[in-house]
Amino acid sequence: MRAIHIKMLPGSDLKKVRIHWMILDEQGPIETPRGEVLCTRGSIVMGGVKGRIACQPGRQSVLPEVRSDGIHLLLRSENINAVNCPECLASAEAKAHFQRQKEQGAQATKREASEAT
Hints:
three-stranded mixed β-sheet
């Protein structure tokens, strides 16, 4: 029997699973599997996307890695709102993304205020 390793958030008493940010990027080194993937609930047809992990930009794959101590999984999301990896959220890309969100929110608030008057 092999152990399955999943990274947890540091210092978490609740033992939260670490979820990384996969930035969609046609020039990225990662390409997710294409075609039909079998899972416990049947098969899923996946189109495959290219990208990179924000905190591990050189990583070549998101597939499970089999090592001598077991199987290592990398949980990830393309939606930054689902991400909780501290290193991903501290990346330059994440900071720029949140700054754009903040600016868009401020613009929407100004627009709504001017429409109300």
